[in-house]
Amino acid sequence: MPDTAAAYRPAQIWLHWIVVIGVILQIGFNDAIVRVVDARGAGTMPEPGDVTWAWVHVGIGSTILLSVIARLGLRRRYGTPGHAPGTSAAQARIATIMHNALYGLLLAMVVTGMLT
Fold first, then answer.
1. Residue 1 placed within a domain
2. Where in the sequence is the domain holding 92, given as residue range(s)?
3. Could you identify which of 32, 69, 73, 95 might form a hypothetical disulfide with 53, taking C-beta atoms 3.0 to 4.6 angstroms apart as the criterion?
């Protein structure tokens, strides 16, 4: 795996924004999927409109999962640019930890959603 790259590849940038937009959209579709899960847990039929929006939520979650996996693959293959000039070693370490935690959180959210 390369340590650093001169710049992010266009695919890395596109995947970044797909994930960002996907996460924002998921917030909007959250209520519908919660209502569907609650209705099924109570043994009742969910509203048809909620089911439709719940499937949109599932589709976007799947897109996020595939995008994160692709991002990690590109990151492994091509590396990423180093930290900004003037970044202290402590700041760089914290940024790396937080970035990795964000990847873990994104994957965990998709997996827990799938398990629900």
1. no
2. 10-115
3. 32
